[in-house]
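Researcher: Sequence recovery benchmark, item below. Answer with residues only.
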């Protein structure tokens, strides 16, 4: 375990999705929508406005749709939750049962100290079991579920998005859980896409093994369970680390699991809905188009064909869907809060990089994986900055096409501050490295080169600079009080919002500034008059030490 992490944070993670919904509602983070909503045309676009409408992250809410219909006028008695897992880091933190600031620590602990699941014989997720004719009859099987269309106008069908797809390695029996999209194809058939690229889906590696054995691959798609269990789906963990045990580590207690009814896989006993089935390994079926998280529509590709063998559920389940597509989205929040701490842990503990403070993955439009910022403490040795850049670019094949190191005073969430740092703190002859042969990673198949390159930039502060030219903090704080007293428009301060020191300064100038704010500006005039000199060009520095122009 990392020495940096301290004791495991106490978690009050809800046991199932409905307990999580109740918590969100009690905290005013859930909006119930009882008006009729068409799942094929209205549901996702409505929730999408939270991300495209200029709302601040904190203003995003979970939406629970209780009156869902489809374009044929069919009514569903299963409510739909969207944004309920990760519309904002706050909503995610409630699912984990810890404050937002502790999310990273909880992840690091869970991976270091997983807790094995406990097998139970009877389970809420199997109160209702649909098999045989119940799966194939008109309006039976998957048609029972209110599956929304994520990108109306582009998607070929309703899609399962908030999935936890459980598969098992046929050689060592270790289960994997991944969040993979599932396209409705028939009442008893789904198209499933498990990425086959480098660093792609763990489920795909299992599929390759079943294919070699000439067997179909059993798969269980869990829809809705304790959020902490579901959060392991999008997380990229080491192959053969059982994610159910990591989920136990996240929750601080063992997850109850039950054996599926028609296949030999274990699923969370408190899940809302489980779709059991077998994936063909001898044939693939066209799947898509579907709006993807890299921000483009994924076109039709040959992907996996899953035959449903059973659908099991609670008597009164809730169906959960994730907003994905262009970032920011629920899909990027769910990844960002969990990926960043794992990258930081890798740099800090595995590589022992000195001076590394924060890892921030760029979210709007780029979808986290391409652009990564590293924040370093002032004075971090340059070779360490470069080890950090290389480490962040190589941890995952699909992450870190552009990695930029900045100093601690630069807020990586502010693109303007990044440009500011590039503009004044890096010399592109010495501070930039381009390396070839990066896999192109997650993105549209067409219109891009199959191989890309990596761009690393050291934009940290390498020498002392004069202070940032804004009024010092106490003056800005006092002025803000007056601003508010005057009832002027609400401020949302952007960092940097006050001046601060960057190393180059003298006590004499502190004296000048102090005198000036006390109205004694004549004092500095007296001092400088005594220091007048001849034989110099204007703009000759009037102090000892280095001056950078
Ligand atoms: C909403 C959402 C949808 C996703 N869809 C897919 C998908 O269809 N196929 C895929 O391979 N990965 C998908 N991912 C990314 C994977 O979940 C992620 O790479 C994860 O690490 C996979 O788990 P694994 O490493 O255990 O396979 C999705 C992630 C999210 C949050």
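Model:
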């Amino acid at each position: 375990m990392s020495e940096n992490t301290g004791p495991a944070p106490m978690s009050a993670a809800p046991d199932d999705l409905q307990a999580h919904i109740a918590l969100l509602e009690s905290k005013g983070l859930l909006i119930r929508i009882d008006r009729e909503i068409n799942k094929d045309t209205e549901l996702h676009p409505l929730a999408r406005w939270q991300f495209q409408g200029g709302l601040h992250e904190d203003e995003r809410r979970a939406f629970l749709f209780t009156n869902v219909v489809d374009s044929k006028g069919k009514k569903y008695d299963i409510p739909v939750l969207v944004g309920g897992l990760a519309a904002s880091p706050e909503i995610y933190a409630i699912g984990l049962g810890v404050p937002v600031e502790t999310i990273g620590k909880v992840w690091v602990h869970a991976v270091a100290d997983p807790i094995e699941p406990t097998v139970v014989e009877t389970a809420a997720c199997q109160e209702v079991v649909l098999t045989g004719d119940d799966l194939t009859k008109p309006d039976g099987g998957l048609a029972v579920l209110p599956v929304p269309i994520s990108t109306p106008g582009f998607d070929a069908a309703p899609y399962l998005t908030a999935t936890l797809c459980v598969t098992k390695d046929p050689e060592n029996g270790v289960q994997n859980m991944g969040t993979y999209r599932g396209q409705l194809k028939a009442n008893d058939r789904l198209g499933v896409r498990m990425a086959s690229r480098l660093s792609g889906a763990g489920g795909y590696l299992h599929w390759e093994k079943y294919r070699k054995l000439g067997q179909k691959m059993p798969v269980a798609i869990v829809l809705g369970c304790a959020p902490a269990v579901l959060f392991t789906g999008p997380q990229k963990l080491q192959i053969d680390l059982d994610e159910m045990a990591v989920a136990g580590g996240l929750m601080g207690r063992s997850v109850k699991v039950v054996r599926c009814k028609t296949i030999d896989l274990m699923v969370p006993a408190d899940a809302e809905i489980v779709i059991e089935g077998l994936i063909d390994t001898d044939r693939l079926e066209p799947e898509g188009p579907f709006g993807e998280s890299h921000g483009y529509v994924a076109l039709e590709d040959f992907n996996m064909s899953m035959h449903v063998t059973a659908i099991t559920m609670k008597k009164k389940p809730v169906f959960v869907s994730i907003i994905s597509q262009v970032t920011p989205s629920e899909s990027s929040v769910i990844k960002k809060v969990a990926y960043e701490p794992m990258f930081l842990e890798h740099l800090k503990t595995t590589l022992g990089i000195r001076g590394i403070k924060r890892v921030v993955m760029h979210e709007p439009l780029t979808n986290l994986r391409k652009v990564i910022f590293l924040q370093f403490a002032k004075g971090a040795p340059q070779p360490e900055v470069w080890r950090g850049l290389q480490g962040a670019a190589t941890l995952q094949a699909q992450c870190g096409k552009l990695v930029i190191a900045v100093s601690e005073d630069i807020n990586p969430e502010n693109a303007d501050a990044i440009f500011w740092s590039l503009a004044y703190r890096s010399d592109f002859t010495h501070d930039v490295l381009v390396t070839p042969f990066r896999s192109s990673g997650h993105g549209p198949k067409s219109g891009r080169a199959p191989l890309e390159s990596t761009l690393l930039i050291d934009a940290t502060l390498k020498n002392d600079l004069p202070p940032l030219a804004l009024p010092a903090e106490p003056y800005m704080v006092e002025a803000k009080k007056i601003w508010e007293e005057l009832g002027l428009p609400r401020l949302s301060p952007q960092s940097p919002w006050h001046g601060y020191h960057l190393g180059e300064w003298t006590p004499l100038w502190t004296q000048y500034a102090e005198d000036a704010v006390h109205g004694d500006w004549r004092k500095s005039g007296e001092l400088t008059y005594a220091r007048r000199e001849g034989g110099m060009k204007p703009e000759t520095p009037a102090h000892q030490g280095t001056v950078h122009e």
